[in-house]
């Protein structure tokens, strides 16, 4: 008999399909959904399948797994993710069989697809040095596992992304028989840069803490990790230098600390006229043309003076300087005020502007707006179409473009770019941590973009892991001084 535990967080769209797949097994079983305090309809959807619900006492996958274990009734525990809809119909039988047949105490799943970036760049190199007995496993970070309940009750559960690797190392230390089972092809969503960075840090920290507890550090192991991390980082930085690359910055919220349209309409007393236009359901390009008409007769110097009164986002000049040093072309994106965007471009040393053309005659706005062809795909308007224009003009694919915006309306651009950053910090220098080839402290959120060069942010984390290992080695040596032979 098997207890299937599914830790979930906002997986209302997939949870029912996962439950239905589990029920295809002929083994006696129970299904326990442990909710990590979801804010969507996950619980309502799970209840439609009449499964047991446990609400976790605190957010964190590890705690949810532990509480699912405590709630289970049977001696064989199986953990599955609630967001994967491509499980084979015999998933429960595949994972549970080695335990039920007495061949194994702990079962890890592996898949036919290539292992993830954190697995290949962080977990496996560290395991090969510190826990070589586990280095043969294809996917040591897999969260689809089965184990004897009595075994799991003897180990701790990390509260974060380190939980899966932590369990593997702990049961290995207890002498458990470990088997890896191929469950076929599994398709899941790519991680965002923020998630990859967080996962890398937490996985490496867990491995190193487990190694520290065993006293496995030595100058030899530190030297090996040091060489690997340095060579990896150097190779990445060399690759970045050789790539043609570009950063596109939205004018509002990324360069100017505010929205220019709001500021200029307030200064010119046009707020009441513009409000119904902005809030209307008209097509975007028609809305922009109606807004432009309201500025008929305003002089260009008036617009530039208002722009100069809006403070710049903190760190913008430093970011532009660092980007240029690393060979990035920099573009400024604005849909309406071409003259203002060009003025800011010249002040900050940005390379070019992508904007619709607000027409002028003798320095006075005519009220007409010429829609830029690079925002159009046929008659369909959208800023995301600019990537095709850049590809044609600069022979630069979207995969080599970084798009930075502070507006959720730019989600299509953030997704289409090689790396899309949704800026929510107060200091733009946070960007330097996540742009390949640059470093700084970060408080960013990266949107997930499949098959993008997100692996370029990992070597720094590997180096950080080295620092932790050095410290742990020194700390362990202090607590365990060498024994001096008697004379």
TrEMBL record:
The chain crosses the membrane at residues 456-474. Its cofactor is Mg(2+). CDD domains: DPM_DPG-synthase_like. GO terms for molecular function: glycosyltransferase activity. The keyword Transmembrane helix applies. Coiled coil: none annotated. Keywords: Glycosyltransferase, Magnesium, Membrane, Transferase, Transmembrane, Transmembrane helix. It comes from the Bacteria. Residues 3-113 form the Glycosyltransferase 2-like domain. SUPFAM superfamilies: HAD-like (SSF56784), Nucleotide-diphospho-sugar transferases (SSF53448). Gene3D superfamilies: HAD superfamily/HAD-like (3.40.50.1000), Spore Coat Polysaccharide Biosynthesis Protein SpsA, Chain A (3.90.550.10). The keyword Transmembrane helix applies. Its EC number is 2.4.-.-. Belongs to the glycosyltransferase 2 family. This is Glycosyltransferase. The lineage of its organism: Bacteria, Pseudomonadati, Bacteroidota, Chitinophagia, Chitinophagales.
């Amino acid at each position: 008999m098997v207890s299937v535990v599914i830790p979930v967080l906002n997986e209302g769209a997939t949870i029912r399909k996962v439950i239905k797949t589990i029920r295809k097994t002929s083994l006696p079983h129970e299904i326990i959904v442990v909710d990590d305090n979801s804010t969507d309809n996950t619980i309502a959807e799970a209840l439609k399948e009449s499964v047991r619900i446990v609400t976790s006492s605190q957010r964190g996958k590890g705690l949810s797994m532990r509480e699912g274990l405590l709630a289970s009734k049977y001696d064989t525990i199986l953990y599955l993710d609630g967001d994967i809809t491509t499980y084979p119909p015999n998933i429960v039988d595949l994972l549970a069989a080695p335990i039920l047949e007495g061949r194994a105490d702990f079962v890890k799943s592996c898949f036919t697809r290539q292992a993830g970036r954190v697995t290949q760049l962080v977990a496996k190199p560290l395991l090969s040095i510190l826990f070589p007995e586990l280095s043969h496993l294809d996917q040591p970070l897999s969260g689809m596992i089965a184990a004897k309940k009595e075994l799991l009750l003897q180990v701790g559960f990390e509260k974060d992304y380190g939980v899966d690797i932590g369990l593997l190392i702990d049961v290995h230390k207890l002498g458990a028989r470990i088997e890896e089972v191929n469950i076929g092809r599994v398709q899941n969503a790519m991680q965002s840069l923020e998630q990859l960075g967080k996962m890398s840090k937490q996985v490496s920290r867990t491995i190193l803490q487990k190694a520290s507890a065993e006293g496995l550090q030595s100058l030899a192991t530190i030297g090996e990790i040091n060489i690997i991390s340095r060579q990896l980082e150097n190779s990445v930085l060399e690759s970045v230098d050789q790539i043609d690359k570009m950063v596109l910055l939205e004018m509002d919220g990324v360069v100017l600390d505010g929205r220019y349209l709001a500021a200029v309409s307030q200064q010119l007393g046009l707020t009441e006229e513009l409000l119904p236009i902005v809030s209307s359901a008209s097509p975007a390009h028609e809305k922009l043309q109606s807004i432009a008409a309201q500025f008929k007769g305003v002089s260009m110097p008036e617009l530039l003076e208002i722009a100069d009164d809006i403070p710049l986002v903190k760190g913008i000049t430093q970011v532009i300087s660092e980007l240029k040093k690393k060979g990035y072309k920099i573009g400024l994106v604005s849909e309406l005020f071409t003259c203002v965007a060009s003025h800011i471009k010249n002040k900050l040393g940005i390379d070019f502007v992508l904007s619709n053309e607000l027409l002028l005659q003798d320095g006075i706005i005519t009220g007409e707006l010429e829609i830029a062809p690079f925002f159009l795909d046929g008659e369909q308007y959208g800023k995301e179409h600019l990537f095709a224009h850049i590809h044609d003009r600069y022979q630069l694919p979207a995969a080599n473009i970084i798009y930075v915006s502070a507006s959720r309306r730019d989600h299509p651009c953030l997704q289409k770019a090689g790396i899309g950053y949704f800026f929510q910090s107060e200091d733009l220098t946070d960007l330097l941590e996540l742009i390949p080839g640059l470093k700084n402290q970060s408080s960013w959120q990266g949107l997930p973009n499949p098959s993008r060069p997100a692996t370029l942010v990992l070597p720094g984390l590997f180096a950080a892991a080295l620092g932790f290992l050095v410290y742990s080695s020194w700390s362990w040596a202090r607590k365990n001084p060498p024994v001096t032979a008697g004379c």
